[in-house]
Specification:
Blueprint (H helix, E strand, L loop, with lengths): L10 H25 L10 H11 L6 E4 L7 E3 L4 E4 L1 H4 L4 H18 L3 H29 L5 H40 L4 H40 L1
Length: 233
């Protein structure tokens, strides 16, 4: 039986994925806001934390910069730039310290040649292209009954699979960066033990957003496969 793209039972998979992502995002925002109000005993900012931890690891070729936005923090391995958002760069909260340390974790991964990070960087352009062309190909395969429709479907599924694979590879990269962050904060004296516990909660909540995103993408992939199978029938 061929399901309509506008109304079919497989939409439940999309809805489940959306709910999971919304819950994870809400938890992340609530946890960050809670500990963004708790000032660290050291009083140093996210920028200072990043610079301190990088130097402790012997990393001198990574620049720490400010980037606009809320929780837009990221490490750019191509340009070796660690960018901290408005909520992190000048803040001395335990939440900001944790986020800054997490991004340092990525810089440390890069410096030490952490294989999953290198794999993610390699997959990134393929995943971006796959995300862009997947649904156009799938829609062509579903809406047009021709000898090439199955080819479009298969290509669309492969393209979307590349995006899902990227998200799966991202999980160990993010978990490892948080682990390195907690270890670095625990040995640097920047935070008290109790404060390190607070940062763990912030980083754990952030990690759940990646897990939720990966789960939602897998549910979407399952939906595409079900639609493709119904098209064959």
């Amino acid at each position: 039986m061929y399901y309509s793209m506008y109304f079919d039972p497989t939409y439940i998979l999309v809805l489940v994925g959306m709910v999971v992502c919304l819950i994870a995002s809400a938890r992340m925002n609530a946890t960050f806001q809670k500990y963004a109000k708790v000032r660290s005993h050291s009083g140093i900012t996210g920028r200072e934390v990043a610079e301190n931890l990088l130097r402790r690891e012997g990393i001198y070729d990574v620049q720490v910069e400010h980037v606009a936005g809320n929780l837009t923090d990221h490490y750019d391995p191509r340009n070796k730039v660690l960018r901290l958002s408005d909520a992190t760069y000048q803040s001395s909260s335990v939440a900001a310290v944790g986020v800054a340390a997490h991004e340092c974790g990525h810089a440390i991964q890069h410096a030490k040649g952490y294989a999953p990070l290198a794999l993610r960087s390699t997959l990134a352009p393929v995943a971006n292209f796959g995300s862009m062309i997947a649904w156009p190909l799938i829609l062509l395969g579903l809406f047009f009954r021709s000898t090439s429709s199955q080819l479009f479907l298969n290509l669309g599924i492969l393209a979307f699979l590349a995006a899902v694979l990227f998200q799966l590879v991202t999980l160990p990269v993010e978990f490892d960066a948080s682990k390195r962050a907690v270890q670095a904060l625990g040995t640097s004296g920047i935070l008290y033990e109790e404060e390190v516990g607070h940062t763990k909660k912030v980083l754990s909540a952030a990690a759940l957003t990646y897990v939720a995103g990966a789960a939602a993408s897998m549910l979407q992939l399952l939906r595409i496969i079900l639609l493709a199978n119904s098209r064959r029938d």
